Amino acid sequence: MLDVLMKKRLLIIGGGTAGISVAARVRRGMPEVEVTLLEPSEKHFYQPMWTLVGGGIFPKERSMRDEASVIPDGVIWKKDAAQKIDPVTKSVSTQKGDTIGYDYLVVATGLVCNWSAIPGLAESLGTKQVCSNYSYQHVDYTWDTIQNFKGGKAIFTHPSGAVKCGGAPQKIMWLAEDWWSREGTRAKMDVHFYLALPKLFAVEKYRKTLEDEVARREIHCSFEKNLISIDADKKEAVFADLKGGDEERVSYDMIHVTPPMGPPPFLKDSGLVNEEGWVAVDPSTLRHGTYSEVFALGDVSSLPTSKTGAAIRKQAPVVVANLESVMNGREPTAKYDGYTSCPIVTARGRLVLAEFDYDKTPKETFPFDQAKPRYSMYLLKKWALPAFYWHGMLKGKM
C-alpha cells in the first residue's frame, strides 16, 4: 500500500507523436511511474505521409491507425481533452468536467490549424479547386485537383508564423509540378509560390538547391506575401505585403493553402506560455522555467527550431532523461541541440534530406551531400521513415 501511495504520477497532455513517444520511453525505462495520457482522439495520424497522399502516391488511410493501438501497455488513457491547466495546484481540468492531479506534467498537445483565420477558406476547402494537405478530411482532394488540373495559374502558399514542417508547403508544389511535367501538360501551367518568408529555406546549403530548382523549373516565387482571404467563387486570393506595400489581389485556377497555425487556445491562461502562446521551456533541457515539474516538447513548445517529427525523435529522450533526474532530486543534465530534419520531396523519386540544428548548421546523417536530390532519400521517406515511426518512435525504441 505504501508503494502505491508514493508512486509518482506523470500526466501527458496529447497523444500525438510527442506524447506517445514520451509515454513509451517512460514505460520502458521507469515502469514504476504511473503514466496517464490525456487525449480525446480515437485515431492517430502519421502526418508526414500527407504530402505523399496529396501527391497521389499513397491513399490517406495508410496514414491512420486507432489511437488505442499506439498507446503503450500500462498507460492509463483518459479519453478527454484538456480545458485548463493549473500549475499551482498541479491539476488539469478536462472538457468533460473531470480534474486530474499530477506530480509531473508533459505538455505535448501539438498545434492547431486556424482555418477560419483566412476568410473564405474554411467554407471552400475541398471544393472549387481550393485544397490543402493539412487536413486529413480533404488531403485526397489535393490529388484530385492536381490530377484534373488542365491548365492555368496554380498557387501554393506558405503563411507567416510557425507551421508543421516548414518544408511541407513547398513539397506539394514540387510534386504537382513534377506530375504535370510527366503528363506533358506543364507548358499550360503557370506555377506560383507565395511565401510569407523572406527566402525559400532557412539553411543556406539546402536553400541553394531549392533556388536552383525554382529557376530550372520556372516557378515564380513571391516572398513576404501572406494570404489573408479567398473568394472561391471568383477564384481570387488576397495577399498582404509584409514589407509594407499594398495588398495584392491575385486570380488563380487552383490554390493549395497552408493555413496559419498556433498553440491550442486553452493554454493561454495557464501561466506556462510565452507571449506567442507556446509553452516556455529551456531550449536545452525542455523544462519549464517557473514550474520545475513541467516539461514540453514538439510543436507546442517554444523551442526555436522547425516543428517536425524528426525534432521530436531527438527531444523525447531528453525529456525522459531529465524527468528521471528531477524525479530523483537531481538537476536535469540531458541536452537537446535543436536538431531537426526536413525531407523535401522535389519530385517523384527525388528528395533533399535537410538536417540541421539551432544554429542552422547542417547535421547530416549520411556520408554524402544531402543537399543533392536523391532517389535513395526518396525511398527513405516513402518506406523507411513510416516503419521507423510506427515500430520505433512510438515504441520508445528510437
From TrEMBL:
<keyword id="KW-0560">Oxidoreductase</keyword>
<keyword id="KW-0809">Transit peptide</keyword>
<keyword id="KW-0285">Flavoprotein</keyword>
<dbReference type="GO" id="GO:0071949">
    <property type="term" value="F:FAD binding"/>
</dbReference>
<keyword id="KW-0274">FAD</keyword>
<dbReference type="InterPro" id="IPR023753">
    <property type="entry name" value="FAD/NAD-binding_dom"/>
</dbReference>
<dbReference type="InterPro" id="IPR036188">
    <property type="entry name" value="FAD/NAD-bd_sf"/>
</dbReference>
<dbReference type="GO" id="GO:0070224">
    <property type="term" value="F:sulfide:quinone oxidoreductase activity"/>
</dbReference>
<feature type="domain" description="FAD/NAD(P)-binding">
    <location>
        <begin position="9"/>
        <end position="128"/>
    </location>
</feature>
<dbReference type="Pfam" id="PF07992">
    <property type="entry name" value="Pyr_redox_2"/>
</dbReference>
<dbReference type="GO" id="GO:0048038">
    <property type="term" value="F:quinone binding"/>
</dbReference>
<dbReference type="InterPro" id="IPR015904">
    <property type="entry name" value="Sulphide_quinone_reductase"/>
</dbReference>
<dbReference type="GO" id="GO:0070221">
    <property type="term" value="P:sulfide oxidation, using sulfide:quinone oxidoreductase"/>
</dbReference>
<keyword id="KW-0874">Quinone</keyword>
<protein>
    <submittedName>
        <fullName>Pyridine nucleotide-disulfide oxidoreductase</fullName>
    </submittedName>
</protein>
